[in-house]
Amino acid sequence: MSLVMRTRRRGMVAVVGAVSAVALLGAGLAPAQAVNTAQPGVVSTNPADWTPQVMNGSVNAIVQIGNTVVAAGTFTTVRQTLTGTDVARNRVFAFDATTGAIDPSFNPNFGGSVNSLTTDGTFVYAGGSFTSVSGNTAVKRVAKLTAAGTLVPGLKAPNGPVSEVVVRGNRLYVGGAFTSFAAPTVARANFAALDTATGAVVADVNVPFTGVYDPAIGGTTSIKRFDVSPDGSRLVAVGNFGAVGGQPHGQVAMLDLPTAGPAAVAAWNTTRFDADHNDCAAVFDTFTRDIDFSPDGSYFVISTTGAFAGGVYSNTMCDSTSRWESASAGGDPSWIAYTGGDTTYGVAITGSAVYVGGHMRWQNNPYQGDQAG
């Protein structure tokens, strides 16, 4: 069984966390099902050799629907093989999960970058800063596609960029740096949900994300990433914010998402990511980078950037990967894995392992900055 991660950047990949039973899994034995799908062991270090080539830009998101893998980002050219012919694909393309063959008909042509993909098994949803899809300039920043790549119009458009989309049931949760959806205009502060059938903004999901985590640094209020538990009951978001639903939450917050009634800020809270407890590099308006729930929803993992800042000696969360229990009240994580000064961008959990990707040179390196220790 192979693994398709919610990959967002190129770089080193490490496996973090205790594994009770390990079996090396050969690449290409069977296509991956999805992120949040449990796997019994760690995947093989030998990658499949048939994956297509992305010739420019970046790959920011990957999702699988059936036996098709959809990749999205900022690229405009792909190739079947490294020495093959250029194939024009604007920010999104698809390939066969078993053979790697590029789908010749899947070409929705996004007019701008795509930051996130999600699927309900029937449709693919995209979020980003794009201002058109398939030549339709009325479709901006969120889009719905069939499995064949055909645009399905109708989703309300936010007035600012989208960094993450996650679908659960008939709701498409959307996060980023926006203040409203149109038309008609509906105010939403950086977080909302759309009805997947009608495209309308869901009235019961209105929890504003406001402020910034560190006023001395400032920046733009935004949700960087979020994930929803597999059962759809909880959401955890990370980004540059200081309050959620009017309550203080620095960079990390959890929401309760009932099937009936309004979404609300959960009782879970931690101050470990706020400005008072961290001295990360001031070049980052948020040092959080990604979050992913485990397949059973019992815990989630947060990855960060931010420079060494003293590591475990200063109790900082900069340049770390940390596990948090969903049923806890928050407080402190179950464990923290430090890199010693390098970033982890993406995280994906399969149950038996936590996979992280970034440009880190080490893991489990809590005592030294920019060197092994």
% residues in beta strands: 35-45%
From the N-terminal CA to the C-terminal CA, the straight-line distance is: 35 Å
The helical percent reads under 10%
In the sheet with the most strands, the strands line up as 18-19-22-23
- Total beta-strand segments: 29
Give an overview of the whole structure.
- With 373 residues, the protein is an all-beta fold.
- 1% of the residues lie in helices and 35% in strands.
- The protein is built from one helix and 29 strands.
- The strands form nine sheets. The chain has a four-stranded antiparallel beta sheet with strand order 18-19-22-23, with no helix packed on it.
- β24 and β25 form a beta hairpin.
- The radius of gyration is 20 Å and the shape is globular.
- The protein starts with 11 loop residues before the first strand and ends in a 15-residue tail after the last strand.
- The relative contact order is 0.12.
